[in-house]
Amino acid sequence: MSNNRTNTNLTKLKLDPEDIQRTLIDIQKYLNCLDNLDTNNESYLNDLKSLINSLHSSNIAFILESLQKDQRDKLWKMVSTVNRSGVLLEIDNWTRESLIETLSFEDLIEITSILDTDELAYLADDLPLDVIVEAQKKLNPEERFQFLRAMGYPEDSVGAIMDFEMIKVREDITLEVVLRYLRRLQELPDHTDQIFVVDRQEKLQGTLSLAKILVSELDVEVKDVMDSDFLTLNPLDSDSDAASAFERYDLVSAPVMDDKGRLIGRVTVADVVDIIQEDSQEQDLSRAGLQEEDIFAPILTAIQNRAPWLLFNLCTATIASLLAARFETTVSRIVILAFLMPIVAGIGGNSGNQTMTMIIRALAVGRITEDNIWQLVKKELKVTFLVGILGGALSALFAWIISNSIQITIVTVIAMICNMLVGAVIGVLVPMLRAHFGKDPAIGSSVILTFITDSFGFFIFLSLATFLLL
Fold first, then answer.
1. What pLDDT is recorded for position 297?
2. What pLDDT, on the 0 to 100 scale, is given for residue 261?
């Protein structure tokens, strides 16, 4: 590899996934070259430092997550302090902890000095206590109050993600005064699409969009053009509920008010996008009974993460096999049934997974209530039955081809439709019951569904075969 890296027009913000992948490959080559050198080559080190620090912090985070721990630690030492603060905010929890462990007290103090109050609160749980204490000393009284307030809210609440940087004005001033005030600022807080109108007790009176300021006469007072119909959030609201509201109303920002109506912060679309992505990743992992894990995690850690639900699945598969073994005589006399059993069990599981995915999504956005749950069950049964008839026609053709028996064909179709209906019911009830008892509806649901559809599929199919064919 050449010491002089070819310019690929990399920019901080305009890397598409293929660009990031190519950059990851380049960095891995640099690191491998450094590993193969007897002594660290200054030219390689400088090229690598220049490359990694030219990237946006989110791209650096992605690259670090994609490296093995020894290479990750080596590259992390080359990241600048400014980029490190951004990386710690962007990177996944399982990697953040290991990166913080490699930093000295002085390094962490330097990083925290760059962070805003809400960002410091976001990282506080992962930082050593002595670092938090020292970082608080550098905050002014207002910032310290905001920090302690943010630390007091639950992890999955609006208060834990709200931003304290926002622009507030009074309702009795003109737009000209507002404009003069804005021009004196060095820059606007990120994602500022509206200004919040408050009284002297900091109670929210309305919102004033930047667009309204630009198109209105300058001598008009704020109270005459402000919007009094606006969405507000409470700091104890669920962050997932806030994300749903942003999606529903196409919001860029929303004010956060305490129980007394005072404006205490705001939530922006950037925070909401992170929540949506985290929830989506958690649901994908939860359906398989997994937790977030470093892809290069130690073997023991990976086993602890994956083993519990796999062992549960082994137990459930054993039960399904024992049920099938009860019909050993039937299978031994009609061997073709062994070829058709997986079809009956598999189609029930697939049908149930479709229903379960719809239910988990509906639960996440709050569309399911006690009043509509049974209507939903009836609807899913009807849909599944009609789809089962269509699938039954295809399975009937296959069963007839391999068995040349009308009786076996009828048994296969009936068992398949019945198992699909079982899968639909389980696909609705399992996530609903978990949600009712305050559990994540996605965790392990697919494992439970597979156990029930396999067991009932084998039982229904072999029971019908025993009753009708022997």
1. 63
2. 92
What is the rounded average pLDDT of the residues 86-112? 91
| Ranges for all domains in the chain classified under CATH 1.10.357.20 | 299-469
Q: What CATH code would you report for 17-155?
A: 1.25.60.10
Q: Where in the chain is the domain with CATH 3.10.580.10?
A: 168-270
- Token pair listed for 304: 């602890």
Strands 194-198 and 168-169: parallel
Contact 87, 110 (CB under 8 A): no
Query: By mean pLDDT, which of 84-88, 252-256, 403-407 is the weakest?
Result: 403-407
Q: Return the pLDDT at 8.
A: 38
Give me the pLDDT at residue 377, please: 82
Structure tokens at 432: 């609903």
The answer on pLDDT for 342 being more than 60 is yes
- Residue-level pLDDT at 343: 86
Burial class (CB in 10 A: 0-12, 13-18, 19+), 416: buried
- State phi, psi for 264 to the nearest 5 degrees: -120, -10
The rounded distance, in Å, linking the Cα atoms of 450 and 452 is: 6
Percentage of the chain exceeding pLDDT 90: 39
Which of 16-20, 202-206, 390-394 is least confident? 16-20
- The pLDDT, as a whole number, for residue 10 is 41
**Mean pLDDT on 205-215:** 94
Distance CA 320, CA 328 (A): 13
Architecture of domain 299-469: Orthogonal Bundle (1.10)
> What b-and-e string marks burial along 167-196, b requiring 16 or more CB atoms within 10 Å of the CB?
bebeeeebbeebeeeeeeeeeeeebbebbb
CA 313, CA 319: separation in Å to the nearest integer? Answer: 10
Whether the Cβ atoms of residue 53 and residue 79 lie closer than 8 Å to each other: yes
Confidence of residue 38 (pLDDT cuts 50, 70, 90): low
Which one is the CATH code of 168-270: 3.40.50.150, 3.10.580.10, 3.40.440.10, 3.40.50.620?
3.10.580.10
Contact status, residue 378 vs residue 386, Cβ threshold 8 Å? no
Q: Where in the chain is the domain with CATH 1.25.60.10?
A: 17-155
Distance CA 81, CA 112 (A): 10
Can you give the C-alpha Rg of the chain in angstroms?
A: 29
Any idea of the CA torsion for 135, 140, 145, 148, to the nearest 10 degrees?
Answer: 0
DSSP structure string for 351-401: HHHHHHHHHHHHHHTT---TTTHHHHHHHHHHHHHHHHHHHHHHHHHHHHH
CA distances from 253 to 7, 167, 190, 196, 274 (A): 38, 12, 10, 11, 14
Rounded average pLDDT over 267-296: 73
